[in-house]
Amino acid sequence: MPFEPEKIKRDHIEKAVQKIKEEALILHSSTDYDVIINGEAYPPKEIMRYAHEQMNGEKIWEPSGGEPTHSYLEKLGFRTVKKERNRELYELKEAFLKQWPLERVKSMSLFEYTNLNKEDSFCYWLESKTQELGSIWGGSAYKFGIYKRNNTEKKDSRSGYSTDGEYAWVAKYGDNAQEVFENVRKLIVSVIEWVQSNELQQIDSIDLGDAVKWKIAFHYSDFQIINIFKTEAIRKVGIAMGLANTASCPLSEIHEYVISKKPDGEDYFDFTKGLWGKYSGLNVEKSGDAVDKKFWMYSPGTNAEYWDEFYSEGIMGIGWDYLGNLKQFQKKNDIKGKLQKESETDNSKKNDTTACWEFANEMKKGDIVIAKQGSSRYIGWGVVESDYSYAESRPYFKHIRKVKWVNKQVQTDKDIVTKTLTDITPYSEYVERLIKELNIDKTLKLMVGLNKTGKISMNQILFGPPGTGKTYHSINKALQIVAPEFYEENKNNRKELTRRFRELLVADWAESKKKRIAFTTFHQSFTYEDFVEGIKPDVNEGDLAYIIEDGIFKRICIKAKYYSEGEAEIARKRVQLSDSNFEKAQFFKVSLGNTNKEEDDEIYQYCIDNGKISIGFIEHIDLKGKSESEIKVIVQEGSGLSEFSSRAMNYFIHYLKKGHYVLVSKGNSIVRAIGQVTGDYEYKTDTPISYPHFRDVNWLIKDVE
């Protein structure tokens, strides 16, 4: 059949589109332009090929594209458009607005706002479905004001929160679920109305969490909001862009200032991606082994059903076996077409397509994979060790990669993304939290097993019968690690090696500042308590007490961490007192939770993050303005607590003054933070921790031991 483009009519094109949809045909993507047909975008040349086939049975199209193809389509009444950068992101924002127009939000029910179906709730759309538009992952579900509980057995007795069993909420919003929701909904509607009238400064005072309210504002905005919602990150962007008062100004001012710096003609998402990449990336130490790797969240089968198998075999795998070897697909769209055809659907298959494409093509050796079970448990993480392969002999999950797994189970009360495979690298706050929770960076260093020179293993065993030189050579090995340059210069001078070894050897732990080596002999009576830690009796003036005493290995680990990570130098710079000022200074010890209780970690972390110290006695009473004697009566007689408790409260309220120093203890012998008091006593019940009594502090040193 001849090439007859002039005979193609509009109905030929419409029939071509119908065939493409019904048969889930794979189309080759266009480079610069699309044709819009019934609201959907198609590659112009591909449409004309199939239209020509409808016209005379020959699927051909000879023009090379560009204006000739455009002119044929436009004569028939179809619109051709230049392909828009980041089109999927713009479409996702539009999809949110289509699903949640303002009028629907105004009449939205509690079930529509939060439910366990997730796919159709406002909160799920806001946090998960639109995460590619800007992440608000992190923190608990309380950030939404109220949420439907998944685990109804778990109790939360913290002040400031309430529950009726089915729902849990922040108490300041009301006394019952419906009242709380109606108040939260009013706040959400206010955010939407203010952003639509471009009065961003009004949003600053709305009593919702910053991340949630600014994500809502972004969705209903005309792109006058920056899609970076973490308060710390947007302030960092403001500083980097030159806004003078960024540290203290309202967030609305930062949004307005930064968006004003967008060059004319630059795509919105290109601009904001550049901001995030340049100013708000991972805050991991550059020496860390987790830097410059991608992070993936991964589900090893439904409810992690294949986890044990994958862990023992050192692999990870995904399904969709009927696709065959994924390397046969040259384009992502090719996988999409095959999935649609096999499933007999015109559903976009976006998540499945992305998982298959990224698993085969974008995941790299050295990337970090975090395995999950359901939406609330991390069950392990590992390092990718191989390229993609298609294992034809496997009965299922034939798409595999080799992984060095680390089994580390962590329960979380925060929702985890639900897709089979997700690249979470762009969500830096989320990744930073996972690196900390799963101890990823430190474990990687152990797996690598090298010091900074990359030449010598940090963990070695010298073995042999008595008298074969194990002790003799241990001196050499120790100096190779802690003083490599000295060792190289003097490796043939035994006298100098021995002298330097003794200089670095800890003889007295109280005077071990510049010592780097500890030496012990594992004799028959040497126990775990001697090596790591143990409970030892302590008799003081006839009173018997039991204290935890660190063993030699733990002591040197603490010492090594303190000096090798630069904490000692930081401490010296941050806390420098002259002799006269030291004589005048007053120091107080505070615990910030029980270090033996894992659930109390959040008390310490909240105080460190927010510049506070806190104490937990008498959680239900504001003690502001109470005298020492009144506090003693309230604590001891009214609440039945000890004299120690009343004394602690009085020290906290009356004796602790601005300018005094506080040492945050960890057990009896370790300090993990030092701060200087800057504020008076406050009673606050609207914080996420159970302790309600607070003082403001300026942290001079934090997160050390």
Describe this structure in words.
The chain is α+β, with helices and mostly antiparallel strands. It contains 27 helices and 22 strands. The strands form five sheets. Strands 7, 8, 9, 10, 11, 12, 13 and 14 form an eight-stranded mixed sheet that branches. Strands 17, 18, 19, 20, 21 and 22 form a six-stranded mixed sheet that branches. The protein has a three-stranded antiparallel sheet with strand order 2-1-3. Helix 1 packs across helix 2 and helix 18 crosses helix 19 (484-490). The model is unreliable at 280-289 and 448-454 (pLDDT under 50).
- Could you tell me the number of beta strands? 22
The DSSP helix count reads: 27
- Quaternary state of this entry equals single chain
- What proportion of the residues is helical, as a percent range? 25-40%
Using only C-alpha atoms, the radius of gyration works out to: 32 Å
Low-confidence stretches: 280-289, 448-454
Mean pLDDT: 82
Explain the layout of strands and helices.
Blueprint: H1 10-22, E1 33-37, E2 40-42, H2 44-56, H3 66-75, E3 79-82, H4 87-99, H5 102-107, H6 110-113, H7 122-129, E4 146-148, E5 161-163, E6 167-170, H8 177-196, H9 210-219, H10 231-241, H11 251-260, H12 268-279, E7 295-298, H13 307-313, E8 315-318, H14 332-343, H15 350-362, E9 368-373, E10 377-384, E11 389-390, E12 399-406, E13 410-411, E14 421-423, H16 428-437, H17 440-448, H18 470-482, H19 484-490, H20 494-504, H21 528-531, E15 533-540, E16 543-550, H22 552-564, H23 567-574, H24 579-584, E17 587-590, H25 601-610, E18 612-615, H26 628-638, H27 643-655, E19 661-666, E20 670-677, E21 682-683, E22 693-702
Parallel strand pairs: 7-9, 17-19
Antiparallel strand pairs: 1-2, 1-3, 4-6, 5-6, 7-14, 8-12, 9-10, 10-12, 10-13, 11-12, 15-16, 18-22, 19-20, 20-22, 21-22
Helix pairs in contact: 1-2, 8-9, 10-11, 14-15, 18-19, 18-20, 26-27
